[in-house]
Each structure stands twice: as C-alpha cells, then as structure tokens.
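Record type: monomer structure entry
Structure origin: computed from sequence
Chain ID: A
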Amino acid sequence: MDGDHFFLGINLMLVIAFNLFLQFVLVVCWYAGNTFYNIYNKKAANMIHAHWFLAAAQLVVGIVWSLVMWGTGLRKTPNLTAADIAACIPIGLCASLAHSGSVLASAVGAVSFAQIVKACEPVFAAVVGILIPPADIKPPLAYIMLAVIVGGVGLACVKEGKGVDINVEAFLFASMANLAAALKGKLGSSVTKALKSDKTKNMDAANVYAVMNIISFICTVPFVVFTELPTLRQEWDHAVTAHGLNNLLFNIGVSGFCFYIYNEFAFAFTANVGAVTSSVLNTAKRVIIIVASSIVFQEVMERNTIIGSAIAIGGTFAYSLASKAKPAAKKAKTS
C-alpha cells in the first residue's frame, strides 16, 4: 500500500511539473511573440503610411494560419450557428479597434510611449465594469491603485525643462485601444464562456481567438476603405520604391504572424491559470517591450519617463492583485 502511495505521489509530482513547464513555455512564447510583434509592427509602420491597412493585413496572416490548421485537421473546425456568429460580432468589432488603436499609436509615436499609455487599460476596464451592467465592483484598494497608474502615466509625460509633453495623436489611439479592450472583456466573457461550454461547437481557447480574429478583420476593412483607400496605391508604391517589396512584405508578414501567435499563446495561458494571473503577467510584459523597443529604435527614456513607467506598471500589477480579493471576500461572506 505504501508503494502504491509512493508511485501515486511520483505521478502527481510529474503532472504538476509538466503543467508548470507547459505554463512556462506558454509565457515565454507569449512574451517573445509580443515583443517581436511590437518591433516588426513599428518597422512596417515606418515603411508604409497606411496604418489601418497594416492592421488589416496583419489580421490576414492569422486568418491564413487558422485556415491551414482547420484544413489540415490539426485543429477542429468551429461549428457555429448564425446566432453564435451574430453574438461574436460586437466582440470582434472591439477586438478590431483594440488592435488597430495599438498599431496606430505605435505608428505615430514611440512604442515605449504607447505601452506606457496602454498600462492605463485597467482604468478603462474598471470604469466600463461599473457603467455596463452587471456592475463589477472592485475592492477599495484596487481603485486606489488606479490613481497610482494614472499618476505614473502622467509623470512619464513630464519632460525635464519642457513640462508636459504628450504625443496627443498617439495618446488618443492608445486610449482607443484601451477602451475597446475593456469593452471586449466586458461584452465577451459571457459569450465566450457559453461557446466553450458547448463541446459540439469545437470552440476551445484557440478557436475562440481564431473566430474573433476573422470577425476583427472584417470589421477593420471599412476603416481602411473610408480612411486610406484613395491613397493606398500611392502609399504602397512609395513604400516598395523606398524599402523594397520583399522587405515590406517580410515586416508585415512577421508582425502579423507574431501578433496572432502571441495572442493564441496568451489565450491558452489564461485558460490554464485564470484571468488574474494572466493580467499580472500581461503587465510585466510591458517592461520587456519598453526596454526592447527603446534599444532597437533608440527611443530616449528620460528620468521621469522611467520613473513614471515603473509607477504605472507597478500600479497595474498591484491593481491585478487587489482585484483578486473580491471573490475571496465573497467566499468568506457566504461561509
């Protein structure tokens, strides 16, 4: 009997070790994909000044990847009804605006600045959580941390000897991305849970993201048509002449592939460990992106920028942990 317990313990330890290793691999791939995406996205944006088009083209790469996976049978094809697809459209629209806002913010400003502003995403999520029913009320400490985040971002925008120095266009696009991401999270949680719970629909985390990616592309196309179509051919020809067709296609293709892959790994990691842990690590990744982009693109980081970024990212980290106290408090109340 002792021998059985011993081998049972060994098996349990091996399972735990494997799960920890799997989560480690997911985080590494998520971080690497996100970092390389931001680098190649900025390179592509510097080549062609048609940034809504760039956002749409990146989504096409993910669509091709999904079709290959479904066509080869490596992944089950989603089995959705018209009602299911209709329920996903608002989420896909929000995903479109979140992605495009990030692309546009990094295109018109520094990658590091876009990441600093995007650290304010919890502020948007908290406001949306309160305004859109059912209300999602966080513990008081979490709301205190929101003030810390805003203060950190504000400090990062203060330049020594110049006062407040904000790239307004980049700030607005990054804020658009934050708001869209917050709405996507609020509107999408119940829909995606329902889809995942019905095994006949073949909607695991990877397929949920793949479907949202397709809808997101469809929602992005009208923005390309209305904002860039008249000058798109001219911008494309200019980019090809200045940088070469192969170089342009390479940066668009790699940025699109990295975007899709890092999101798929992030979805898989969140499905394994939960939203709070994922949110904490999502905050930590911004440090890597800011440092890497500053080195690659030689973006100057002043003292206030560094301190403000650290405060904002630290505040976001603390907000994620403080938010975790809500279910614990509920549990204690009911017991």
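Annotation 1: Strands lie at 158-159, 163-164.
Annotation 2: The radius of gyration is 21 Å.
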